[in-house]
Please model this.
Amino acid sequence: MLTLLMVLGVALAVYGVMRAIRAGGPLPLIYRPLSGVQERQWEERILRLTRGNRGALERAVTARRRRFPQASRLDLLKLVHDEYVKDRE
Model:
């Protein structure tokens, strides 16, 4: 009886994860990408371009967020980086 309850519990947990994946809902922490690491890498790239001016970085990200309110911070950092590179050419 106890084994049956354990199997049923595991099956329900797997079903919940599969349903969340298909529905596009929030994934468990294990399945989320490491976007924080990527954000820091893009911040470092932009800081090199701005000679360490974090204020300029944050102002640029804020300006892009006004234009693209649904974008993630990672996407905004990429946009800012592309604009700085394009301006330097």
